[in-house]
Amino acid sequence: MVRDPLIFAAISDLAGKMRGKAFPASKLEKRLRSGIGWVPTNALITCFDTIALSPFGALGDLALMPDLETLVEVDFKDGGPQERFMLSDITTTESAPWSCCTRSILKTALARLKDCARVTLNAAFEHEFQIANGAGTPGTAFSLEAFCDHLEMGETLMGVLDAAGLKTDTFLKEYGADQFEVTVEPQPGLIAADQAAILRSLTHMTARRLGSEVTFSPITDPAGVGNGVHVHMSFLDADGSPVTYDSNGPAGMSRTTQSFVAGVLAYLPQMLCLLAPSVISYARLTPHRWSAAYNNLGFRDREAAVRICPVMATDPSSIARQYNFEVRAMDAAGSPHLVLAALVHAGCQGIEDELAAPKPSEGDLSELSAGALADLGYVRLPQSLAEALTAFEADPVVRGWFPDAFESVYLSHKRAEIEYVESMSETDRYSAYSKIY
Questions:
Q1: Residues pairing with 83 in the sheet
Q2: 405: buried, middle or exposed (CB in 10 Å: 19+, 13-18, 0-12)?
Q3: Which end of the chain is more exposed for a tag (fewer CB within 10 A), N or C?
Q4: Residue 202 buriedness (CB in 10 A; 0-12 / 13-18 / 19+)
Q5: What DSSP character marks residue 118?
Q6: DSSP at 15
Q7: What is the rounded distance in angstroms from the CA atom of residue 228 to the CA atom of residue 329?
Q8: How far apart are CA 395 and CA 291, in angstroms?
Q9: CA separation (Å) from 156 to 26, 282, 303?
Q10: Are 276 and 229 in contact (CB under 8 A)?
């Protein structure tokens, strides 16, 4: 049978979905020059494939511009076709970055960081997911038994990620029912976000090739644990030396790190709708779920929104290379490019405003009153997507980090998502998101 190999030009959109168009591999050079047609209203397609109220209507033209450096070609060697796809930017017909292109938004944020702090970002995304059709066997958290039961999935996935150019780190059975975690090594900011999007797609592809299904849904059962995305971050100077750590700084934070973390915490409530962007995300962001319920800093504390991570070293140079902090309020309903852009912009705001990082929190913050939290500089994070969108809309600083058209498009998109699920039963709502992500 004659086949003409196709390459899918993808964008990680406002719903955190990989959408785009395919073209014959033989036309790659042409498409790298001229792109592929796209339309503005596609940004209003929700995760459920409804179309939110669009300011563009049927008007306008854009282009998907594939980035050759992101090309993924994976042969599963199972007799099926190779998987071929690549990340793209969305541009206007005049080749300018489009206002709702998540990849371009991240590039702008990373340029701001370099300009205001003279550093570059290294980041690593940790992903949790669940086997959608798993048995849910009790007593298997972190167990060898459950790992062995899904060894084919783990080994195939790690091999596929390696073949795609990702530097694999760990694969483990997590705490939740049929829940696993996969991690890769840190990469420069844009590459880290690209690889996060690639990893999610390849995990789904791997499961399907093995006759299974996985979900990265933020939470599948309100009585269970959620599937988070944790982003580890550190900084390098112009010479490539680590500058995140200072032995004399609080909790080991350099001055740049202190202000960056302070910015993330200060603006976390107002940007949470970008990081945890589904209706069900907020069932995960509750106390005692090891996620994030407050805008607090923790020293090796997995209940904190931002955690100073441990290092496995004693000499100063090794400590400096390993030292990083982790932001824990995200999930895979968000585009990794938009998530990272929001975090970087918040950090830059903290650096530009010379904010000082708060002291690491201690104890159970859920036991404190709102007044006591305020005295410590903390607030309870928004407890619904609607509340988070209102906080975003009310903050001119956070809105100002993004292109002019972005705010109205994003708000329309997410409010349409809320409307779509509001009449569903709780069970149907969790099921719907589980099938989407």
A1: 74
A2: middle
A3: N
A4: buried
A5: S
A6: T
A7: 8
A8: 24
A9: 29, 32, 32
A10: no
Nearest-5° angle of CA 70, CA 72, CA 77? 170
Using an 8 Å Cβ cutoff, are 130 and 431 in contact? no
Q: Which pLDDT does position 60 carry in this prediction?
A: 94
376: pLDDT strictly greater than 90: no
Residue 362's alpha-carbon distances to 52, 250, 251, 329, 394, in angstroms, are 43, 15, 13, 18, 30
Fold of 6-99: Ubiquitin-like (UB roll) (3.10.20)
Residues 318 and 333: their CA atoms lie apart, in Å, by: 35
**What's the pLDDT tens digit per position in 32-55?**
999 999 999 999 999 999 999 999
Residue at 270: amino acid letter = Q
Find the mean pLDDT for residues 119-126: 98
Residue type for 89, please?
D
Among candidate residues 3, 112, 169, 48, the one with its CA nearest the CA of residue 414: 48
DSSP letter, residue 1: -
For residue 85, what are the β-bridge partners? 8, 72
Reduce the DSSP state of residue 330 to 3 states and report it.
Answer: strand
What is the per-residue pLDDT across 215-255, written as a single tens digit (0 to 9) for each?
999 999 988 889 999 999 999 999 999 999 999 999 999 99
Q: Is the pLDDT of residue 22 over 90?
A: yes
CA distance 275 to 286: 15
Give this prediction's pTM: 0.96
Task: Give the Cα separation of 146 and 6 in Å (integer).
Answer: 37
The structural domains of the chain, with segments of one domain joined by +, span: 6-99, 105-389
In angstroms, rounded to a whole number, what is the distance separating the alpha carbons of residues 186 and 349?
A: 23
